[in-house]
Design goal:
Elements (H helix, E strand, L loop, with lengths): L2 H9 L3 H15 L6 H7 L3 H7 L5 H11 L3 H7 L6 H20 L13 H19 L4 H9 L2 H10 L7 H6 L8 H12 L8 H12 L26 E5 L2 E5 L4 H14 L33 H5 L20 E10 L1 H7 L5 H5 L3 E16 L24 E5 L2 E5 L7 E5 L11 E12 L2 E10 L4 E8 L6 E9 L5 E8 L10 E8 L2
Antiparallel strand pairs: 1-2, 3-4, 3-13, 4-7, 4-8, 5-6, 6-7, 8-9, 9-10, 10-11, 11-12, 12-13
Length: 518
């Protein structure tokens, strides 16, 4: 058959058959990268182009999106009305555009801040948000595409930790300036944790992670005020970003830089030869066998709380910032602390380099926690306990607590009413939080002795505050504040601080992270 006859035959092929051919070519192109064979097909003749081009056939590209990326999580979160064929097609083009930038290293290195213009910063912002949402929607395909095709690990390491990284973190440290965690830096730090490879993090990375993890006088463990139990976003929250997301311009809030910086920092400490082995659950371990059990790693609800925290006005009607039962059980992990005189110096405007010379100690600790809920269905007229002081984990001072196997009775001093909170039970509780209030109680031990734990969950963003009171010896009380990052298979991470310093002032602090005992 001559070339002209081939062209003539393609001219006569029905449109639906051409679509089947296009889909078959995309299947051949899988598992990684854009559908290059489809591009070759579009160049064969005008009639094929008129049927299969992006502008002429967005439903085709919507189908290709579903073949190439995970889509069921986005469908559940956004609804069918938002995930039209056109929206999926636009997202397909956007993802391959930003992944090509990651793959080429574009935007990760820039020795001169003046050469990085506003348009380039916006492109980096869009790319980081796109990658972040791909992770939060992952069921297996997205992570593979980012890690292997986009080579995002290398891009993130260069951007954050290279001496000439376009985040300019190391440049500011050299100038004895404490870097401000921009939206881009916060997103990149989260991605650094998701794709963590401790062996690839050099001195610059260690310095950066230590600074964000332990610089508590500069970097809060929450994007919202940690000492406020309110639902709204106070002025100190990061500004929202306007980015393209499934074909529309939408606004989102970046995650706090502290939790994922701590997870990476403690994992890095644990990977050094003289430390104990890591106990933290890695987000997506690179050495997980494709034939192994990846159910937990690729759970469609694993990053639901992280997704909810990006929304401008998170609320129960949109979905859970808290996954029921995510803290109930046995936890093990570490807490770190530094010499008190070194910490005191941090509060007197010393440069970040001072922190790098400070020695950090760490101890193992083990917690047993029980999660109790004031359910909306069983206590329709019962109001939650009043909000107590932040340094008392927001529990009313002197509140009596009597726990049994199915729940806990809470009673304020001088009040006759007893408020009943019900113990979480995986066989009876819904996944989505339908509670007016959540109280956590438990006990544990460390090298410093035994202790009890009690506290409360800020449902608007899932921020946990627990009071740790040692029951033997003069160790006193300490306040733990943080988030559960990922569930199932996640970590409880944040900072502890003393309870003597007023909550509006910087106290003596360290960081901690725990993972459920397997």
């Amino acid at each position: 058959m001559s070339f002209s006859q081939t062209m003539l035959s393609l001219d006569n092929v029905p449109g639906d058959i051409l679509e089947y051919i296009a889909i078959a070519l995309c299947v051949t192109d899988r598992p990684l990268g854009p559908p290059s064979s489809l591009s070759a097909l579009l160049r064969t003749c005008r009639s094929v182009y008129n049927v299969l081009s992006f502008s002429a056939n967005k439903p085709l590209y919507g189908r290709i999106f579903k073949m190439t990326f995970d889509s069921s999580v986005a469908l559940r979160r956004l609804g069918l009305q938002s995930l039209t064929a056109a929206a999926l097609a636009d997202e397909l083009v956007l993802r391959f555009t930003v992944m090509k930038r990651f793959r080429s290293g574009e935007g990760s290195i820039e020795p001169d801040r003046e050469l990085l213009d506003a348009r380039e910063v916006e492109q980096i912002t869009q790319g980081l948000w796109t990658a972040y949402f791909m992770v939060l929607e992952n069921e297996g395909k997205n992570i593979e595409m980012l890690r292997i095709y986009a080579r995002i690990n290398t891009w993130i390491l260069d951007y954050l930790f290279d001496a000439n990284g376009a985040s300019f973190i190391n440049d500011e440290i050299r100038q004895e300036i404490w870097p401000e965690p921009s939206v881009n830096i916060c997103l990149a730090m989260s991605l650094a944790w998701f794709f963590l490879e401790p062996s690839r993090i050099g001195i610059g990375g260690q310095r950066t992670l230590k600074m964000f993890s332990l610089g508590s006088h500069r970097y809060s463990p929450s994007s919202l005020s940690w000492n406020d139990f309110r639902r709204d976003r106070p002025p100190n929250a990061l500004e929202s970003s306007d980015v393209k997301f499934y074909g529309r311009d939408r606004s989102f809030y970046a995650p706090s830089i502290v939790p994922t910086a701590i997870l990476s920092f403690l994992s890095l400490m644990a990977s050094t030869p003289f430390m104990t082995r890591p106990t933290l659950t890695l987000a997506f371990p690179e050495n997980v066998s494709a034939k192994g059990d990846t159910t937990v790693l690729n759970s469609s609800t694993r990053w639901e709380s992280e997704w909810m925290r990006t929304l401008p006005a998170p609320s129960d009607k949109h979905g859970p910032c808290w996954i029921n039962g995510c803290m109930d059980g046995i936890w093990e992990g570490k807490f770190t602390y530094m010499d008190f005189s070194d910490f005191a110096a941090l509060r007197h405007d010393v440069p970040p380099g001072f922190l790098q010379a400070s020695l950090i100690a760490q101890h193992d600790q083990f917690w047993t926690l029980r999660e109790h809920h004031l359910l909306t269905t069983e206590n329709a007229t019962t109001e939650p306990l009043p909000i107590g002081d932040a340094l008392s984990a927001f529990l009313p001072k002197g509140c009596a607590m009597v726990e049994d196997s199915t729940g806990i009775n809470m009673q304020e001093p001088g009040k006759s009413q007893v408020v009943r909170y019900v113990r979480w039970n995986k066989n009876e509780f819904p996944l989505v939080c339908q509670s007016k209030d959540i109280v956590i109680v438990g006990e544990g031990h460390s090298n410093w002795g035994r202790f009890i734990l009690k506290g409360r969950v800020r449902k608007s963003d899932g921020f946990v505050t627990l009071l740790k009171e040692y029951t033997d010896g003069p160790r006193g009380s300490w306040l733990y504040r943080g988030y559960v990052i990922g569930h199932p298979g996640g970590n409880l991470v944040g900072r502890w601080r003393d309870t003597i310093t007023p909550s509006l002032h910087a106290g003596y602090e360290g960081c901690f992270a725990l993972t459920p005992r397997k």
